[in-house]
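User: Assemble these into one structure.

Assistant: Restating your components, then the assembled model:
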Amino acid sequence: MQKKTYQFTAKKVDYYFDADFSYLARLIDKEHTVLVTDENIFQAQAKKFKGWHTIVLKPGEQHKVQATANSVIEQLIARGADRKTVLVGIGGGVITDLTGYVAAVYMRGLRVGFVPTTVLAMVDASIGGKNGIDVGVYKNLVGTIRQPDFLLYDYSFLKSLPETEWINGFAEIIKHSCIKDAPLFRELEKNKLKYYQKDKAALGKLIRRNAVIKSTVVEKDEFEQGERRLLNFGHTLGHAIENMYALSHGQAISIGMVAACSISAQLVKFKDSEKVIKVLAQYGLPVHTDFDRKKAFDILKMDKKREKKEMNYVLLEKIGKGVVKSIPMVQLEKIISNL
Amino acid sequence: MQKKTYQFTAKKVDYYFDADFSYLARLIDKEHTVLVTDENIFQAQAKKFKGWHTIVLKPGEQHKVQATANSVIEQLIARGADRKTVLVGIGGGVITDLTGYVAAVYMRGLRVGFVPTTVLAMVDASIGGKNGIDVGVYKNLVGTIRQPDFLLYDYSFLKSLPETEWINGFAEIIKHSCIKDAPLFRELEKNKLKYYQKDKAALGKLIRRNAVIKSTVVEKDEFEQGERRLLNFGHTLGHAIENMYALSHGQAISIGMVAACSISAQLVKFKDSEKVIKVLAQYGLPVHTDFDRKKAFDILKMDKKREKKEMNYVLLEKIGKGVVKSIPMVQLEKIISNL
């Protein structure tokens, strides 16, 4: 196990990489902890949950809504959870987002930890303190920014991870390489998903490298005034079409990244769209851009990154260098309709 | 108008005392602001709202629930509210708590200001950043601590304030005097509600003095690790019986203060219970303690101030000096059943 600590604005967060789930019992007091997970994980990893108070939710993004948060809150009340209770979200982004959100508002804030169980949650969703729920078609419209107390990485959860979820996670890994890490992009170009699935050491190194990229960005700009916005590469359009077409997050942002590359070529002379498209396809991600432009733009207008009549859009100047451009909504509407 | 600024952990808050509502237009941009108020205020003060985007809610504590927050969120979406939108809660504690809560979670946080329109909101509820909603019988079980950007005090709202609401507010004023300000307690002993209702200058001074007491306590201890707990005097039992008997907040904490005086006499030799009871009665507040002990204790067990097997209870050593005592729940159960 390797421990690493990041200092955010109001809190330091401990990361336990390459750890065993059982280590959780050394971090927190079983009696005053409630685990939150979903049915899939609970069934696949039943042994791990023995002896822990656990709330088990239905799996899937469609349950990342206020009604589920209400249900968790009612179960916490029924269990007599108080301010000293610690919540631990064990799952993918849906579980960690929802658990972080409930922890932020229950009795005005409980301590919370995460055990990410998907590649996507390990490299992205569980890091950085953003939590939340969806409202209708709007992803993460409600939530807070509040750091967890710890993150525990147990790669054994990945053994039961479906192929589609692996692909999902690599969308965020490719994103990180595009905006921040050209050498990582070249590594990804050389390999395939199978390589990381088979080589435990390479996978551990890759996950940690990506967790570090994200954590370093967030450490510099927790409340997204500048640098952190880069992490939204592919996400503006991605979020708009994700619920529209019931895409996985990875699929949605892959299409979003392809679109952002095309916009980058138009506005900041980005030349390597083809390379990005090739890597995305190589890791099983969709690269087409046939979606309902008008409908997507209508949803995109409500994106949190819009500020009055402009949208902060993340573009690439070159591979490894993302930039934020403020694009007037009228111009953006035209660009998207012509994609 | 007098401006005063308090510096809290993450934010400074501007207080505009003795201001006119119209000053709001100089603080914020009308086009990107949404006011939140209730039907009573909206009808009584229709002129003030002209030209402002306004969300009007049903009045009353029974609407301080997640369903109302959901409805506000949906109306914000429908109005295209984005991260640059400012919310302003105009009302009593129900409105400022709910508006503060929605502002804390909508798009992970909007700027928010309050225009308290009741004595209680002016001296207490709108100050200190605590926001939230009730869940079933549990008051403020869900919420956050997040400071508003500004508070604007326009005493003209008090002209239409019902007598019961005046009494409500004086419960918190008496509370402040008990825990922090013996000279204020003596001033209150000498006067009656009518005096403050008739003398605008005396009222303005009283409200400001109380706003300062609360703000100073919160400034020292925003996240309630010590000093801020004193503000819960009368509130532990008060919250338990408030929804149980559909009492007003002032009535509930008045009974809670009487009980806390009695516990103070038992545990820290407080000698002036009679004086406190006399002042409460003098301002029209109930001082009996006939309530269902068992049921009240069952609700009280879920109070946010409980920590595992102990409750942080606020007692009085003398008038003007509150103290926090950790009382084991088993002992507290006995004390309450014998009140």
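The interface with chain B takes residues 9-10, 32, 66, 70, 73-74, 77, 80, 82-84, 101, 104-109, 130, 132, 135-136, 138, 140-145, 301-302, 304, 306-308 of chain A (CB under 8 Å).
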